[in-house]
Design goal:
This protein is mainly β. The protein has helices at residues 2-16, 49-80; strands spanning 110-115, 122-124, 129-138, 149-155, 163-165, 178-186, 193-202, 208-209, 219-225, 228-230, 239-242, 246-247, 260-264, 278-282, 290-300, 305-312, 320-329, 335-343, 349-354, 363-373, 383-391. The chain folds into two domains: 92-226, Sandwich (Immunoglobulin-like), CATH 2.60.40.10; 231-391, Jelly Rolls, CATH 2.60.120.200. Helices cover 12% and strands 35% of the residues. The protein is globular. The chain starts with a helix and ends in a 6-residue tail after the last strand.
């Protein structure tokens, strides 16, 4: 009987680590503000830390799977083009193993694959804390364990700490496997400042090593502190939920009936104007369906505006939804600062909220965009948030 219970628990643990339903659409290169310490759940309570950790792990696994799919597609294209490249240079495996063993006398090395969050050249507001993440492959012969770290190497010292654990749980990455490595960075005061910071990996015995065959290529983050923070650049690091629970931000797959939240570069809105980047949010296909997307925390100075143009899609006659913006100070109850009803009337609603009018400035704030279907939800209930942003640029009246 004890053996039966043991195997039941073992199988349950293994299955719980698997990921299904890779999202149809995701902007891998979108900048992610992922310093999320609290978020708004469906009942407006704070999200427990274990839920945030679970959400981040799900996001990391799905991002890894999506990149792996893109690489496999590239390999297929190369085969069709009869390009002769060594397969070991192309293949990565995003799966993490559960163990705690490391081989003696091995070599530590990694290869940079891509940016996951905040690609070089991204902009953020002053005093903002954000998470920079890279997708890397273990190209050495050592197995990485939970004692491995990402450590500051050179350049601007803008990390919130000198080192960060490579894993947040007891996982490993065997040679050939790929993972997401992350650090938390801080955007300093003042506008129009550029920062460049470099990070390396450190093994469980204290060895510091960089990427590439020559062992001299550290991980980098290059960002600009300016006057605008774009939410659509940070969608992959948001917390998305609907009436059923949490789902992966970036998914546009509505076949399951779940809510969706995804990026589009130039959607057309009711006024038939197109050309601006946007976030598309839709409720689940149930009566009173509700989808929430939470960003932050992001600190804003006095005089900051939250601005966006809100609309149904054109040629969506059944579109009818309530759209709300919540702002939350850590430890306090989230507040609605603006809301509107969107239906297909040929007009676009402008959100121009000066946050300091509500006492929101010089604070770390979370921002939740909520879409609630009025009556029965329909596939027409996709709301377009054009250029949702925090900016010091006031609207032109």
């Amino acid at each position: 009987m004890k053996k039966l219970i043991f195997w039941f628990i073992f199988i349950t643990v293994i299955v719980s680590g698997c990921t299904g339903n890779i999202p149809v659409q995701i902007d891998i290169n979108a900048t992610v503000e992922s310093a999320v310490s609290s978020a708004l759940a469906a009942n407006k309570d704070f999200v427990r830390q274990e839920i945030l950790d679970y959400s981040q792990n799900v996001q990391n696994t799905q991002i890894a799977s999506q990149i792996d799919q893109k690489i496999n597609n590239a390999i297929s294209e190369l085969k069709l083009a009869d390009v002769n490249l060594p397969m070991e240079q192309l293949t990565v495996t995003p799966t993490l193993s559960i163990s705690s063993n490391t081989k003696d006398g091995c070599t530590n090395r990694f290869e940079y694959v891509s940016d996951v969050t905040f690609p070089d050249g991204s902009m953020t507001l002053p005093y903002t804390t954000f998470t920079k993440s890279w997708y890397i492959q273990n190209t050495g012969t050592c197995t990485w364990n939970s004692k491995y770290k990402v450590v500051y190497y050179s350049g601007d010292n803008v990390g919130t700490a000198k080192s960060f654990p490579l894993f947040t749980s007891d996982k490993i990455a065997k040679p050939g496997e790929s993972i997401i490595a992350s650090v938390k960075l801080y955007a300093g005061e003042g506008h129009n400042n550029d920062y460049t910071t470099y990070w390396s990996l450190q093994s469980d015995d204290g060895e510091i090593f960089n990427g590439g065959t020559a062992q001299n290529i550290p991980l980098s983050s290059v960002f600009h502190v300016g006057s605008q923070y774009n939410f659509y650049d940070n969608l992959s690091g948001a917390i998305c939920s609907d009436n059923t629970g949490y789902f992966y931000c970036g998914s546009s797959d509505k076949t399951s009936g779940r809510g969706v939240a995804f990026y589009e570069s130039n959607p057309t809105v009711e006024s038939n104007y197109a050309g601006q980047p946007a976030i598309i949010i839709a409720p689940p296909l149930i009566d009173g369906g509700k989808t929430s997307v939470t960003f932050g925390p992001v600190r804003v100075p006095r005089g900051t505006w939250l601005r966006s143009s809100i609309s149904c899609r054109p040629n969506a006659p059944l579109c009818n939804a309530k759209v709300r913006l919540y702002v939350q100070v850590e430890g306090l109850t989230p507040q609605i600062v603006t809301e509107s009803q969107e239906f297909n009337d040929g007009f676009v609603t402008e959100w121009n909220v000066q946050l300091s009018d509500y006492g929101y400035h010089d604070q770390d704030l979370t921002y939740t965009f909520e879409v609630e279907a009025i009556g029965g939800a329909d596939k027409d209930d996709e709301i377009v948030f054009q250029v949702p942003r925090l900016t010091d640029k006031a609207p032109i009246l």
